[in-house]
Amino acid sequence: LALANAGVEKLHPYQPGKPVAELERELGISNSVKLASNENPLGLSPKARAAIERSLPELARYPDANGFALKSALAGKLGVNTDQLVLGNGSNELIDLVFHTFVAAQQQVVFSQYTFIVYAMATQAHGAQAVEIPAKDFGHDLDAMAAAITDQTKLVCITNPNNPTGTFLTKAELAAFLAKVPRQVLVILDEAYTEYVAEDERHPSIDWLAQYPNLIVSRTFSKAYGLAGLRVGYMVAHPELISVLNRVREPFNCNSLGLAAAEAALNDEAYLSEVVELNRREMARYETFFEQLGLRYVTSRGNFITLDLQRNAAPVYEALLREGVIVRPIAGYGLPTCLRISIGLEHENQRCMDALAKILA
Ligand code: PMP
């Protein structure tokens, strides 16, 4: 087959966790707990569920191609105009859309080692050149990233909090970085986990948009809003940039159920507080547990925590599976000694901790 570019030829598929039913069948177990994909353990917000039910009779119709209601709700919440918003089938689709729209073959894309793997994949799929900057303390080395920008650089990708390590860049660090980036270079600031960050620590990324027409803030309804299966994400940026993305994207990229559920979830503040509070409480419990066992972990601001076993983590991953606890090995991210554990419900986390204590005893 003649492919569009050499990058496509070398592309490896994204490796999601196996479906739970398949894993359970293979292992001959039932009632496993899945702490592998940074999903929301509380399930749907009741308001989102009601919105989905209300939308069912409309499913024979096409969705609203412009997502008017969701964009209006988001604009109100974020204090931006609707022409600063583009909606996607998950933020993943939008990341790809940015590459498709702006990144030409051979141009350079700068990102950090140990960051969300889709940035490397999209770079390769579009025949662009990856400039991967070695991580500093498991997170982004912003000085080195700024220094790596050249005349060939088109895009810089920053994930904050970072996945899979959970590291966090402060407002001061990010503000200093943005000031150094030339205006012709786009910056995606991926904030998939931003809702988990305490409000006083969160960086004012939306306010920075007025100052930086090259900044694209990316967010999702898959994590704190609990809608991973419905695939809704959004980007916020300068209207000119958004207008191009809206012309290039597919007209019906977001489905009716996702649009309705996202709007309802956005307005369910009680649910969001519960989600964030559960995560804060259970994260603290994992930290205490790791400290008691003398295990190394990376301090995380996301809904997951990365444990560094300082030896090949694969046998521990396998042993956890046999105990019915599914976590995420991240050797594919270059971290073969680490396991990423998504924060679950209290009893799920307890199972994970009990299994780890047993395996590592
Ligand atoms: N960005 C980051 C940093 C992520 O971890 C994820 C999901 N794993 C995404 C984007 C994509 O999420 P979605 O497509 O579900 O919005």
From TrEMBL:
InterPro entries of this UniProt entry? Aminotrans_II_pyridoxalP_BS (IPR001917), Aminotransferase_I/II_large (IPR004839), HisP_aminotrans (IPR005861), HistidinolP_aminotransfase (IPR050106), PyrdxlP-dep_Trfase (IPR015424), PyrdxlP-dep_Trfase_major (IPR015421), PyrdxlP-dep_Trfase_small (IPR015422)
Q: Which EC main class describes this enzyme?
A: transferase
Keyword Cell membrane attributed? no
The pathway to which it is assigned is:
Amino-acid biosynthesis; L-histidine biosynthesis; L-histidine from 5-phospho-alpha-D-ribose 1-diphosphate: step 7/9
The protein's required cofactor(s) are namely: pyridoxal 5'-phosphate
Give a Pfam family name: Aminotran_1_2
The record's annotation in PROSITE patterns points to: AA_TRANSFER_CLASS_2
Transferase as UniProt keyword: yes
Q: Which positions does the record annotate as the modified residue N6-(pyridoxal phosphate)lysine?
A: K223
- Domain (Aminotransferase class I/classII large) spans 32-350
What EC numbers are recorded for this enzyme? Answer: 2.6.1.9
- Reaction catalysed? L-histidinol phosphate + 2-oxoglutarate = 3-(imidazol-4-yl)-2-oxopropyl phosphate + L-glutamate
HAMAP family, alphabetically? Answer: HisC_aminotrans_2 (MF_01023)
Spell out the NCBIfam families in the cross-references.
Answer: hisC
The annotated subunit structure for this chain is: Homodimer.
- What does the sequence similarity comment in the record state about its family? Belongs to the class-II pyridoxal-phosphate-dependent aminotransferase family. Histidinol-phosphate aminotransferase subfamily.
* Protein name (database record): Histidinol-phosphate aminotransferase
Q: Which organism is it from?
A: Oceanisphaera marina
Upper lineage is:
Bacteria, Pseudomonadati, Pseudomonadota, Gammaproteobacteria, Aeromonadales
Give the gene that encodes this protein. hisC2
